[in-house]
Write a structure and sequence with these properties.
heterotrimer, A mainly alpha (166), B mainly alpha (100), C mainly alpha (648), A: 166 residues, mainly alpha, 6 helices, 75% helix, globular, B: 100 residues, elongated
Chain lengths: 166, 100, 648
């Protein structure tokens, strides 16, 4: 049963990802990406990562992708040339690289024998569990991340502001 | 229960698709979206291993990835706006200035 | 030989060194014309003291002065050691004595020259080098002096360098000498190596003498021939004599000192010094004798047809040096040194006299435009006459005794050698008196303006002429034939150093017995008569052709057409060398400069640079500026790493 669910989700995810990458229109790509993120949130739920699933929807699909759509609309439709790179060699090399990577990882996974998952604490995946780790073991990165966000905000404003009209 | 390996392979596949997108699309925003796809694939892998090991460290990592991705998206899109405003072109191969 | 340490020896060398420094620091005419001769004079006095001290010691003694340690590398120890034995005593007295007289002469001759300071600096430097050469106690130090005199010769020949011919003559001298020097060095290396092979690593003369017996005759022959090749360069023998006639481009006192009395005798000194080595290589001695005889005869024939007064003397020097090598070749080393000494006296005299003539005639050197100087230049006339009589071998002048010793020993070796020597003597007498008659007798053939200004030379020039004339007259009396008065005192003095080098004794020798030895005890008196007759014939012929019946010359010219031209062009040897050696070498050099250097050597270096640039030009195409390309390389790298772990 769980396997079937996984299979469906996996198929949909791959279709969505390919749409993101292969669709000529960037708005369709953005929408496909929103779909991928939503599906990933579902996958997270199946992996008992409830907080993460929620955050995935709120942050990623809700905020970041909206930002993407804003920028796409702001910039408008692109000019000449076509959406894909023209060089055949580039296509071939990219396919080789990406495919090789995926196949390599897949082979490694297939060869390794993973034990059945350990059963975590009962509160695994909840806010409590994550918060406990976040504010004790990973406190410093947490603080640094807040600084990072501040920098990002300032940077984005400065970069996107453009020249002041005299 | 679905074996953890399946999730990892799925994550690898998503990562590969994202990498492909980075390389063959010309539109800067679509390239960026492919990068986001790669980040999400990584998140999937982290969450899968978090369940495998029964520890919340993986979740914390995912949190950080999301945060940094958000910051990166904000700054990156601001850069794209600035580039397009100044050079009138949204394509990566037309913005190749640091060449020989 | 017992050695005695005596630090006075170094002073013989230090005085000329101070001379050089003084002339460099205070290059004023008023200073150098006093300082330079004074230093050489002091060197002469010091040499006298040193020789007197040597004389007081038992025969066979040596004064040794260890100055400092020069090289100590592995088995090779070379020190700056100076020594005075009988042989170097003679040489040092000749060099300083004649040198001092020529320095005095130069103060008069070069009085109006602009570069007097440079001249005396070079002259003192030459004296220093020559003294180093004769006082050296080991071969490398001798070679230092050898090279030094070569350098000074080059500097002084090209003294008036503004004229290209003078500079070229200097270059020619240096280059030809270089060939000899290369052979010298090879001989030195072979000797060192040969001695080292038997365990004795040395280059000092006394040590070499002690251990030379261990060398194989073949190696000894090779060494001797190589060293003799060096000597042919320095002492202007066949085939490396061609630089000496051209060297007459230098000031006349230079010709007198360097190219007559001292530097050119260095080769003879070298062979005499290493006589024990030559004793082991009879083949080498034969070569020396034959080369000497051939040179003596050849140069004499050339001198017969020369029209420049200095060139006659130059070829005469080459010829007389040939006699010295004949003496060495037959084992009569003391006779060679005896002739070296008397030759120094009369040749320096002749050159200085020629300088006086040139000076008095305002620069004229062509014999055809001289004549009648007898009245206007009496001192020069008398002293030159003495010199000519000495070189012609007229008794009792100096040249007679020394040349006679050589001819006697040559006869014992092989009559053919003696015959060559006598012919040469006859020719010598002829061309010397031809020169004398053309210069001093008959009506003056000079232009009117020159004729007006003919004057005798100043005292500074006349004094050395008189001194040398006196020596040319009495200098031979130290080496009388065996049963006359005190006999060969000179040979006796040198005997401890040059064992077996007696002149006049006709007994058995361990060396130098050539193919004609079967004749045994030679009829001495007869030979002496023959050589005097040859001299007389030569003088008589000159008298006939140039004073009594000058018209005969035109008839001879008609009978032997082309002979005069052949001789006056010195058998076209220079042209031959030019075509066979100089042109090919120059062509090779040109090829190397125009093709090898830019296209091969530069090409290698430039090619390396171009290769680097090309590689760089290729690699930089990776910098496309397109970020996606960079991302691709990242991806491929990551895929490779994963593949590496996934595959095994």
């Amino acid at each position: 049963m769980a396997l079937a669910v996984f299979g469906v989700l996996a198929t949909l995810l791959l279709v969505g990802a390919l749409t993101v990458v292969l669709h000529p229109d960037s708005v369709y790509s953005a929408l496909a990406l929103i779909g991928v993120m939503a599906l990933l949130a579902v996958v997270f739920v199946t992996l008992e990562a409830h907080l993460i699933a929620a955050l995935q929807i709120i942050v990623y699909a809700g905020a970041i992708m909206v930002l993407f759509l804003f920028v796409i609309m702001l910039i408008g439709r692109p000019g000449s040339g076509g959406p894909f790179a023209s060089s055949r060699i580039l296509w071939a090399a990219s396919g080789l690289g990406a495919g090789g990577l995926a196949i390599g990882v897949g082979t490694m996974v297939a060869k390794s024998a993973l034990a059945p998952p350990e059963a975590g604490r009962p509160e695994f995946g909840t806010t409590t569990a994550v918060a406990r780790e976040l504010f004790t073991t990973y406190l410093l990165p947490f603080e640094l991340t807040s600084v990072l966000l501040l920098i990002a905000v300032v940077g984005a404003v400065v970069l996107a502001k453009g020249r002041p009209r005299a | 229960m679905v074996p953890t390996g399946y999730y990892v392979i799925l994550a690898a596949a998503l990562f590969a698709v994202g990498a492909l997108g980075v390389l063959i699309r010309r539109n800067l925003i679509v390239i960026f979206m492919a990068i986001e796809l790669m980040l999400n694939a990584v998140n999937l892998a982290f969450v899968a291993f978090a369940r495998q090991l029964g520890s919340s460290d993986g979740h914390v990592f995912v949190l950080f990835v999301m945060t940094v991705a958000a910051a990166e998206a904000a700054v990156g899109l601001a850069i794209i706006i600035a580039v397009v405003r100044n050079r009138e072109s949204i394509f990566a191969d037309q913005n190749a200035l640091l060449r020989w | 030989m017992e050695t005695t340490a005596d630090s006075i020896v170094r002073w013989i060398v230090i005085w000329p060194l101070l001379g050089v420094l003084g002339n460099l620091l205070i290059p004023r005419r008023s200073f150098v014309r006093l300082w330079a001769p004074a230093m050489v004079g002091l060197a002469f006095v010091t040499a006298l003291v040193a020789v007197w001290r040597l004389w007081m010691l038992p025969p066979g003694a040596v004064l040794v002065d260890h100055v400092y340690r020069w090289m100590a590398v592995g088995n090779l120890h070379v020190n700056v050691d100076l020594s005075v034995d009988a042989l170097s005593a003679v040489m040092v007295l000749v060099v300083t004595g004649v040198g001092c007289l020529i320095h005095v002469y130069s103060t008069g001759y070069m009085a109006e020259d602009r570069d007097v300071a440079r001249y005396f600096t070079y002259l003192n430097l030459f004296t220093l080098s020559m003294l180093l050469l004769v006082l050296a106690d080991n071969l490398p130090l001798l070679f230092v002096g050898w090279e030094g005199v070569g350098l000074c010769s080059y500097l002084l020949i090209g003294f008036w360098y503004e004229k290209t011919e003078n500079a070229s003559a200097g270059k020619k001298a240096f280059v030809v000498n270089r060939i000899g020097d290369a052979c010298f060095l090879l001989g030195l290396f072979a000797l060192f190596w040969g001695l080292g092979a038997q365990g004795t690593w040395t280059v000092a003369f006394r040590d070499i003498e002690a251990s030379a017996a261990g060398l194989s005759p073949g190696l000894a022959t090779v060494i001797c021939l190589l060293l003799f090749a060096g000597a042919t360069g320095k002492s202007a023998q066949l085939p490396l004599y061609v630089w000496l006639p051209d060297a007459m481009a230098g000031p006349t006192p230079v010709s007198a000192l360097i190219h007559a009395a001292t530097m050119v005798t260095a080769g003879v000194y070298l062979v005499a010094r290493l006589h024990f080595l030559y004793a082991m290589a009879p083949v080498a001695l034969e070569v020396v004798a034959i080369v000497g005889a051939a040179t003596a005869l050849l140069a004499a024939t050339i001198a017969v047809a020369q029209t420049d007064i200095k060139r006659v003397l130059a070829y005469s020097t080459v010829s007389q040096l040939g006699y010295m090598f004949i003496a060495c070749g037959v084992g009569a080393y003391a006779s060679a040194i005896f002739h070296l000494m008397t030759h120094a006296f009369f040749k320096a005299l002749l050159f200085l006299g020629a300088g006086s003539v040139i000076h008095g005639m305002g620069g004229e050197q062509d014999l055809r435009r001289m004549g009648g100087l007898q009245v206007r230049m009496p001192t020069t006339f008398v002293t030159m006459l003495a010199g000519c009589l000495a070189i012609a071998g007229v008794p009792p002048f100096a040249g007679f005794f020394s040349k006679d010793q050589i001819l006697l020993r040559a006869y014992e070796w092989h009559p053919a050698l003696w015959l060559a020597g006598v012919l040469g003597a006859g020719l010598t007498a002829y061309y010397m008196f031809r020169m004398f008659f053309l210069t001093f007798t008959g009506p003056s053939r000079a232009t009117a303006s020159v004729r007006e200004h003919i004057h005798e030379s100043p005292p500074s020039m006349r004094l050395p002429l008189v001194a040398l004339a006196a020596l040319a007259v009495v200098g031979g009396l130290v080496g009388l034939p065996e049963h006359w008065l005190w006999g060969d005192a000179f040979g006796a003095f040198l005997a401890p150093v040059l064992a077996g080098g007696h002149g006049g004794a006709a007994g058995a020798h361990s060396t130098g017995m050539g193919p004609g030895a079967a004749h045994g005890h030679a009829p001495e008196a007869l030979l002496m008569l023959a050589s005097v007759a040859a001299a007389g014939a030569g003088i008589g012929a000159a008298y006939l052709l140039y004073i009594r019946r000058p018209a005969e010359r035109a008839r001879l010219r008609a009978r032997f057409p082309g002979l005069e031209q052949l001789l006056s062009h010195a058998y076209y040897v220079d042209e031959l060398y030019e075509a066979l050696i100089v042109r090919p070498v120059a062509a090779l050099a040109g090829f190397a400069a125009r093709v090898l250097d830019p296209r091969v050597i530069d090409a290698c270096v430039n090619g390396l640079a171009q290769l680097t640039a090309a590689l760089g030009g290729g690699w930089r195409r990776l910098q496309t500026g397109n970020v996606q390309h960079y991302a691709l390389s990242l991806l491929l790298g990551a895929a490779a790493i994963v593949a590496y772990y996934a595959v095994p």
